Amino acid sequence: MKRIALTMAALTLSAGAAFAASPAQPAATAAPSHKTHVAAAMRNDRAAERMTKALNLLEAKGYGSFSDFKPDGKDYAATVTQAGHSMTVRVDPDSGQVTTQS
Predict the structure, then answer these.
(1) To which H or E segment does residue 44 belong?
(2) Number of domains in the chain
(3) pLDDT digits over 27-56, tens only?
(4) Which domain holds residue 81?
């Protein structure tokens, strides 16, 4: 009986030591929630809508030929050619204004 008790004690201690010696599992990195994905998609959709509106404004104002279209702060800038002259224009898709820059 003593032998069984000693064997059980030894097993218990060795199991505890093995458990304590095992490396801790790394904390699972939380995947972005559904709300995070939706918010990112909404931001991307809003940015895409603003860019599309800016491109449409350029065409509506007669600047069908342009290049170097890029974000410029909250607006967009593009190099346009009109009557043989190149110039930079700034497009504000929120107000609908297209202004020339020197």
Answers:
(1) helix 34-60
(2) 1
(3) 556 666 666 666 666 677 889 999 999 999
(4) 65-102
